[in-house]
Amino acid sequence: MASFEPILTRHIHREDSHTLSGYKNVGGYKALEKMFKTMAPDEVIEEVNASNLRGRGGAGFPTGVKWGFIPKDSHKPTYLICNADESEPGTFKDRLLLNKTPHMMLEGMIISSYAIDCHLAFIYIRGEFYQEHKILEKAVEEAYATNLLGNDILGSGFDLEVVIHRGAGAYICGEEMGLIESLEGKRGWPRIKPPFPAIEGYLRCPTIVSNVETLACLPHILNRGADWFKSIGSEKGSGPKLYCISGRVNNPGVYEEPLGILLTDLIFKRGGGLIDGRELKAVFPGGSSSAILRADEIDGLRMDFDSLSAAKTMLGSAGIIVMDETVDMVSVCLNIARFYAHESCGQCTPCREGTTWLVKILNRIYQGNGSLNDIDMIFEITDNIGGLIDFSKGSFGKTICPFGEAVAWPIRSFVEKFKDEFIAYVAKGVEVS
Amino acid sequence: MPLIKIDDKEIEVEKGITVLQAAIDERIEIPYYCYHPALSIVGSCRMCLVEIEGMPKLQVSCNTTIGELPPERKKDGKYDMIVRTQTEIVKRERENVLEFLLLNHPLDCPVCDQAGECYLQDYSYKYGRAHSRFLEEKRVRKNEYLGSNVIINHNRCIMCTRCVRFTREISGTNELFVQARGDVSKISIFEDKSLDNMLAGNVIDICPVGALLSTDYIHKNRFWNLEAKKSICTDCSVGCNILVYSQNNRIYRLNARENHNVNGYFICDIGRYGFHRYEDAEKVTSPLIRSDGGFKPISWEGALKEIYEQFSMSMSGEKQQIVGIASPFHTNESLFMFGRLMNNIFKDKSIIGKLPFIEDYEIHFDSGFRISKDRSPNRKGLLDFCPNLEDEILQKVKAGEVRLCYALDDGVDRKLDEEWESFFKSQRFLVVQTYAMTPLAKLAHLILLGPSPMEREGTMTNDQGRIQWLNPSVSLTNKTRPDWEIIMEFMNTVGKRELKYTSVNEVNLEMGERFPDYRGRTFFKIGYQGLPKKNITTSRPSEGRQAIQ
Amino acid sequence: MAQNRTFKFTNPQRVEKILSQYPDKRSATLPLLHLAQEQEGYLTSAAIEAVAELVEIHPGEMMDTVSFYTMFYTKPMGKNHVQVCQTLSCSLNGADSLVDHISEKYKIAHGDVSQDGKISLVKVECLGSCDTAPVIRINDSNYESMTVEKFDKIVESI
User: Fold this and answer.
1) How many other C-beta atoms can be found within 10 angstroms of the C-beta atom of residue B64?
2) How close does chain A come to B136, measured CA to CA in Å?
3) Contact flag B100-A360 (C-beta cutoff 8 Å)
4) What CATH number should be reported for the domain holding residue A296?
5) Contacts of A168 (CB under 8 A, 6+ apart)
6) Which residues of C touch B187 (CB under 8 A)?
């Protein structure tokens, strides 16, 4: 592996990395000063566009392009929301940033707000992140105390208020329209698009929703330039990336590597290989919403947006969950299906009814009461919830938000790739009866 | 204007409307559940998916707006959008959505009130699959009361949330909400804050399936037994358009009928359940004459003879006063005839009055829906056709003169205070035209049997000046005669006229001849949506009198 | 369900502060609900109505929001509210046996409160601590890399 100097997590081992002074000691808020002194908002957008920064929340949409969707002639206020509602199974990178270097994200928020002319920004933090919330509150307090937030920030004439908003336990609020509804005090039922949030988001005003990690990249882009950022990783996706490794590996954790690193390097080098030297069976490359990969599919596979979508899965949240040879794939599939049934918001017919149906069928198979027909049914039901998946043309979602696809992809991939295990369960049931 | 193609049909549409609206306007069927033209768009039922050329996935037609493409990007060189509603993929998708909706549905159509007018039934029949693939146990929940008149059957609910949006966007009362999430979510109310507002019954109308049920109608009849009549509500001066469902001359329920010039899509609960008042009233079944402190039936011939004896005296110069009491509950045609009788036959011996108007709270909803404080249907018509109405009739009536009174009864809503009671008691002869033994009827010497509001036919003028057709929802019983006909007979008998109208339409034509504002406002012209008055004359008393004479 | 008939925020300044942070009142819903729940341990009907009044919506609409989120409780939880993550990484690393242990020891199933009111148990979805699976959460604190023995010790100590 080529040597790579961590950028986002470089200083997190320091005891004071989460404090303002700790952050400032390692060059924190320098980008902000530079921006206020030398850059107009349009120039910030240009720089971010040039950096090829793509959103780290899951969809991988280019950040600068998203900013560009805000109507120029709008008389309404513009809002920025930092999406810190990290809840994708197998994902804990934003939590690390919130815990260890909240100011990096805050600096990114100020930069982003300046670029899009936002004066009130929110951090929507997952309700379960209690400690992180406390740390973040302290960080925001410090920022206000030193005029990094509030009126006339650092004498620039730019004003920004930041409000921390706690969620209350709902996976779907990580979806931007669900998040916006939730911030408005409603249930987190994703609103139908169009209009898109950049046109009509929070309180029907132009709104940009950005992931924690995405925002944390911004100070570095401004500090060291778009070209530098672009030089990290591959053509297909540039910049540093936080990868989460969990499951049956020796060294689970968050690892910062360039976009495009080999999946095998992450599992076997960073993750320390599998527990007890067992054989790798399967891996989720991008959280539980990505299609699962069999051990024989990962050789040479690079962790970037395009390579993974060519492999008919996705980078998603870069939550890598590793399963070894002893793992029962039927039970894992049932576990995943349960998660989605529990988290389905219940708004769209296919998702509300289909997720529970899947759980019931999978449970029946797991209990030994399944039939071969059930296996085919699972294919059909996942298609009917998430759409026929054609990677050459994009996904064919059938629901308001991408949750439908997020259910369909993994469940379908389990049955497709480990069909023999499902058949074995069916056969076992036949034997018993 | 954008030019689009839906299947094989070329349509020019207004820019900005949705594909579903365009299809509905063109009567191209795209099935849907959560969409309702009066409510916000949520796009959650996924039933209205269609194929749109150039879009990678199916789109919900309810949220896809039609814009204009620049010339070089037009589809097939001329279309701004090409929509396909009948392709294999669209059909399969409908089948799939229906399968999901029916998974936990009890399929209890034989005992469901919605059967026959159920979109789940209809679409399943048209677009659904023939067999069920669901082997699991169904989700079962108990029925619950949402309000005094509304029950929910959760098992039949498809979570389209039309009812929830109705309470937020139309009634503005917010009682209904979605409880919990995912497949355990259900429509609910908060503790004792039940669904009891003046518009509550509409949620039953807009529920596309058999989930929301009326306690008033539950298990009373089957939809296919009922005959629907398009009419208007007579419980306030708004004149909401309604559908009256009956079988064998018995009314079972009222639904709202769409009219964007009057009530939109909804009606209030006063009107919805109001017809029971006529059922509960003590009915009059024949003309009656006072006898030994009570009443006894009398034939129509006998009744007219009695009228002749009492009233024709007044024509012969004896100083008498004829008091006519008109009513804002009657049709324009009846009031027109009544005005003629009083003004043209009794002339200056007559004086026309009315009882105090029946009023209550005026209720306005933010959505624009309105219940008028004027709880009679035809005050405007009354003022138009009896322009010389005396407001202070109690004072105007000269004391001591022999008095004969002919009163059109307001009906079951009318109460009499002591002053009015003694006024009527002081009449030498009191004729009351009514359908029920009301307090006023009880004072009569002679009762003429007219139709109840559900039997009446003719036009009413609502408080916006819109002329609408009151269509009888049940037919006249044996001895009942239309109000206008009774008045005509009165005129023929007392005034020696030879009027021979054979239907309310003939009266309506004559009325139009004499009142220019009403010219051409025949049933043929106004249809079931009504038309505004022409406003050729203003109804100043003097002009009105000229029109009569 | 015995519930308090009235509810009053004990910290009105905090309420004012929260309301002042948002451009509209309704956006203050979630933080106000959190505050009310901190005060009483769960959301009583009176608290739900009080928050609804503050943000000027119908209590029904407030319940619409409350019932959507798993972290809002409309009935009392145990003094120690134990939440066991059951999502994949935790499940792969022994979350199920933790649930079995707690269920057996305190005679409670998912969603129950022990008879003495000391412990309540819910199975929850991913707590975002997959690298230290299995993870449980007691009240507001996460406890990582759990074992049955560790759990018993922690419960004793708090």
Assistant:
1) 20
2) 7
3) no
4) 3.10.20.600
5) A127, C30, C33, C34, C69, C70, C71, C72
6) none
Does the beta-carbon distance from C64 to A248 stay under 8 Å?
Answer: no
Q: How far is CA B524 from CA B469, B508, B520, in A?
A: 10, 11, 9
Cα-trace Rg, chain C: 18
Torsion of Cα atoms, B503 then B508 then B511 then B515, to 10° = 180
Residue of C nearest to B193 (CA): C60
Q: What percent of chain A has pLDDT over 90?
A: 90
- pTM for the structure as a whole: 0.94
Q: Judging by DSSP bridges, how do beta strands B3-6 and B81-84 pair with one another? A: parallel
Q: A394: left (phi > 0), else alpha (psi -120 to 50), else beta?
A: left
Residues of chain A neighbouring C142 (CB-CB closer than 8 A) = 130-131
Give the whole-angstrom CA distance, residue A358 versus residue A405. Answer: 14
DSSP 8-state class, residue B68: -
Question: Which residues are CB-neighbours of B458 under 8 A, at least 6 positions away?
Answer: B331, B332, B333, B334, B469, B470, B484, B504, B507, B508
Q: Is C129 on the interface with A (CB under 8 A)?
A: yes
List the helix and strand counts (H, then E) for chain B. Answer: 17, 25
Is there a contact between C60 and B181 if contact means CB atoms under 8 Å apart?
Answer: no
- Domain locations in chain C? 12-68, 80-157
Cα(B205)–Cα(B304) distance, rounded to whole angstroms?
46
How far apart are the CA of C2 and the nearest CA of chain A, in angstroms? 25
Q: Could you give the C-alpha distances from B230 to B244, B512, C82, in angstroms and in order?
A: 7, 23, 61
Is C53's Cβ below 8 Å from some Cβ in A?
Answer: no
Q: Does A420 touch chain C (CB under 8 A)?
A: no
Last residue of a domain, one of A271, A304, A324: A324
* Contact status of C6 with chain B (Cβ, < 8 Å): no
Cβ–Cβ under 8 Å, residues B428 and B403: yes
> Do C12-68 and C80-157 share a fold?
no
The CATH architecture annotation of domain C80-157 reads 3-Layer(aba) Sandwich (3.40)
Q: Do A353 and B58 touch (CB under 8 A)?
A: no
- β-strands C119-124, C136-138: how paired? unpaired
pLDDT for residue A59: 82
Judge whether residue B347 has pLDDT over 90. no
- Determine the Cα–Cα distance for residues A330 and A421; give it in Å rounded to an integer: 7
Residue B393 pLDDT exceeds 90: no
CB B213 within 8 A of CB B115: no
**Using a CB-CB distance cutoff of 8 angstroms, which residues of chain C are in contact with residue B184?**
none
Class of C12-68 in CATH: mainly alpha
Cα–Cα–Cα angle for C151, C155, C158, nearest 5°?
A: 140
C30–A171 CB contact, under 8 Å? no
Average confidence (pLDDT) per 10 residues, chain C, 158 residues: 75 97 98 97 96 97 98 94 92 91 93 92 90 92 93 90
Report the distance separating Cα A281 and Cα A296, nearest Å.
9
HSE-CB for B202 with a 13 A CA cutoff? 34
Residues of B in Cβ contact (< 8 Å) with A384: 96, 99-100
Both tokens of A406, joined, read 């997020």
pLDDT (0 to 100) of residue A1: 45
Given a cut of 90, whether residue A247 has pLDDT beyond it is yes
pLDDT, tens only, B465-478:
999 999 999 999 88
Its domain, for residue A365, covers 329-432
Does residue A391 surpass a pLDDT of 60?
no
